Amino acid sequence: MKLKEVPFRMLYKRLHLIKISEPIKNIISESDVFDEATHILVYGYVANSEGMRFEVLSGVIMEKEDILFGPPSDIRITLSRKDIEEEEIINLPDADNKIKMMYADVLINVSDYMESEELNELRELEFLDDARNDDYPDDVELYLMKNGFDVEVCWAKIIGFGDNYLKGILLNTPSQGFGVKAGDPVRVLIKQVEAEGITEYVCLTNLDL
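Predicted structure:
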């Protein structure tokens, strides 16, 4: 499956194998660690304002069902979702964390992006996935509503929990104004909607409240 077809939930905090294509070969060419590799081993994480990224841990040789793990990468290489969206990706289960422990020295690089307990809980909210931005999972499509205005869709960054709502920051100024602008706090409400037998969750804010 191509990476662009894989939802955030299946990428976040997981290990993956990506076949070394010509574009990837050019990215990793500065290190000898990948000389014999057929795939790269990556770890998916969210780098806050940089969005979804993948830390390259090592080169891997795959022969049929056998996987030979190479040494840890000797240089830091990170990839954005956009960098590799056309590449084929394979999820690599690691329930006992043995593989992660093999590359602990490289995974230290993502420790600066360890989320707070609250942010981790927000990212675990699966009902938000319908509204999430694929490249920036903390950002959601937000329907703005106010009497006298048409409904307008903007983007908001989810930053915390409120009392029966989520706290957000508006990321762009609506074309109709609404009396709000980018950077303003908004209360994000979640509504379940059904269309043609499909149930989805949408984020909205009522600016009359």
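Summary: The chain has a mean pLDDT of 92.
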